[in-house]
Write a structure and sequence with these properties.
heterodimer; A: mainly alpha; Helix Hairpins; elongated; B: mainly alpha; Four Helix Bundle (Hemerythrin (Met), subunit A); 74% helix; 0% strand
């Protein structure tokens, strides 16, 4: 793999994926679709970590472990965010960010 | 062969991530996100990170996507369409992200990367396990414990949030 495909390809791929995620985060108004954009961003970062690990430091596994920890943090974040979104939906019957201006309990 | 596979998966990732952020049906956006995550796992397989790819498939593609699909079904009707994005907002968001992407790609292409190391990588389960719990050099015991506390805190937080909205 690494002799035939330059690291630039992987890094450009992850940069484009990251900014597609940023675009989705700016454009979307639905909380769940915004969460999906955040997942795209986190995945782009994972690809970056793994590519640097594989191409320049194959004797260590630092990028690998960082990607693992990022996945764990993403899983926690999604669980908490979806709990908040569903409890918000029960209160005001919508998950549109522009209508959900009230966070009071 | 590997080159062809790489370009197929890279194309899949780009096309489906664009569809994820532009699709007006939430459920379809979730399924497109699933394709993106599976293609990213395939890239990890190509780079010989088998354990990470397996974690990506089970945790991301299996866990997070199912959670997202469940929450979509709980909060909106399946055939419901999102309202189209206003042109001005889309144009500004596109300009911002395109400028960022252009800057990043330009920097990447002009940066002189060092020589790629041709050494083989060892990602056996034995090595991963001993490094994850090691506390000498190359050990990750501390972040491992921090992550376990984070998971516990997340679990408690979710239970409390879900309980409070019951009444």
């Amino acid at each position: 793999m690494i002799e035939k495909i330059g690291i630039e390809n992987l890094l450009i791929l992850s940069a484009l994926m990251f900014f597609i995620g940023v675009y989705g985060f700016l454009v979307r108004k639905n909380l769940i679709t915004m969460l999906m954009s955040v997942e795209l961003i986190l995945n782009a970062v994972n690809i970056n970590f793994v590519a640097f690990n594989r191409y320049f430091y194959p004797e260590k596994l630092q990028g690998h472990f960082f990607a693992l920890f990022v996945i764990a943090v993403a899983a926690t974040e999604v669980a908490v965010a979806i709990a908040i979104i569903i409890s918000l939906y029960r209160k005001i019957r919508t998950i549109d960010v522009e209508k959900a201006s009230e966070m009071k309990y | 062969m590997e080159q062809v596979l790489f370009y197929i998966f890279a194309g899949m990732i780009l096309v489906f991530s664009v569809l994820t952020v532009t699709s007006r049906r939430i459920l379809r956006a979730a399924v497109y996100l699933l394709f993106v995550l599976v293609a990213a796992a395939a890239l990890f397989f190509l780079m010989q990170f088998e354990f990470l790819a397996a974690v990506q498939l089970t945790l991301y593609a299996g866990g997070i996507i199912v959670l997202i699909i469940f929450s979509v079904m709980l909060t909106s009707h399946v055939s419901e369409k999102l309202e189209p994005v206003k042109f001005g907002k889309a144009a500004f968001a596109f300009a911002a992200s395109a400028a960022g992407a252009a800057l990043t790609v330009y920097t990447l292409l002009s940066y002189p990367f060092p020589e790629v190391s041709a050494a083989e990588i060892d990602t056996s389960m034995k090595r991963i396990g001993s490094e994850l719990l090691g506390y000498q050099a190359n050990g990750y015991a501390l972040p491992f414990e921090v992550i376990s506390i984070l998971l516990l805190a997340g679990m408690l937080g979710v239970i409390i949030i879900a309980k409070r909205s019951e009444k």
